[in-house]
Amino acid sequence: MACDLCDGDGGEVLFRDAKLRVVAVTGAEAVYRGFCRVIWNAHTKEITDLTRDDRNRFMDAVYRLETALRSSLDPDKMNIASLGNMTPHLHWHVIPRFHDDATFPKPIWAHAFTSQEMASDTTQQSHPDWKEAVRCALSA
Amino acid sequence: MACDLCDGDGGEVLFRDAKLRVVAVTGAEAVYRGFCRVIWNAHTKEITDLTRDDRNRFMDAVYRLETALRSSLDPDKMNIASLGNMTPHLHWHVIPRFHDDATFPKPIWAHAFTSQEMASDTTQQSHPDWKEAVRCALSA
């Protein structure tokens, strides 16, 4: 069965090892500054399908990413979510939230992007320094 | 500063220890069968504000809860999220999702409850057996 996260990287890869990768979102979603995903490389549906060691490894990447994003962007709140209803391939959305972002204080999913917005690419609106902080934090 | 999760339980308590509690949501949100929250008892903003041991303890409760909900309800997908933009007191939403639920495959936050829905109490629509499974899984 076709799976977007098996067939492609799912974003701009900032870190990758044998088990997982961290990507910065691209396209319209990049309007949320620092929005990244931690994607388990193997096609796995739920976190409780992983072994204990793999769960810890997966969450350690989330913590490193959150720490790097907090340090470099100083968000008002961090949002973390594993949903995957349409793409049941294990991944965490890790989203720094700011009082002046597009939907705060609502969850970002309260805003449905229009097809016009989805076709736009807001990647360049985002100051890129945080990406280097993420690369360093995950490689350490 | 007033905090809903310091001032109250935040739902029907299914498990509680010195560090955290697991509650079943009540009111309109209970339309999502099995929707629970894992709430850190102390007022803490982000998961990376916890020590490593406490993060592990928090996530272990999430895994136990997810396992119990999967066993007892057999959902099509599990959704897990830590948001807290309006209530910045660390808690995980743990939500079994079903093809025939109110918003699937969208995130539940894509649906804004009307004030009429919020005033309703759908708690009794939910078959209660899963609550006993959660109590057992967390106490084990």
Description:
The structure is a homodimer of 140-residue chains. Chain A is an alpha+beta fold and 140 residues long. In chain A, 30% of the residues lie in helices and 20% in strands. The first copy, chain A, has 4 helices and 5 strands; from the N terminus they run αβββαββαα. Chain A has a 5-stranded antiparallel sheet with strand order 1-2-3-5-4, with helices on one face. In chain A, α2 (52-73) packs antiparallel against α4. The longest helix of chain A has 22 residues, at 52-73. The first copy, chain A, is globular and about 40 Å long. The model of chain A has no long low-confidence stretch (mean pLDDT 93). At the A-B interface, α2 and β4 of A face α2 and β4 of B.
* Assembly context of the chains: homodimer
Please give the order of strands in the largest beta sheet of chain A: 1-2-3-5-4
Which term fits the overall shape of chain A?
globular
Tell me about the biggest sheet of chain A? Answer: 5 strands, antiparallel
Strand percentage of chain A lies at: 15-25%
Helix percent band of chain A: 25-40%
**Beginning-to-end CA distance, first to last residue of chain A:** 35 Å
- Largest interface, C-beta within 8 A: A-B, 31 and 31 residues
- Rounded Rg of chain A: 15 Å
Note poorly predicted spans of chain A. Answer: none
Mean pLDDT of chain A: 93
Secondary-structure element pattern of chain A, one letter each:
HEEEHEEHH
Counted by DSSP, the helix tally of chain A is: 4
How many individual β-strands of chain A? 5
Structural class by helix and strand composition of chain A: alpha+beta
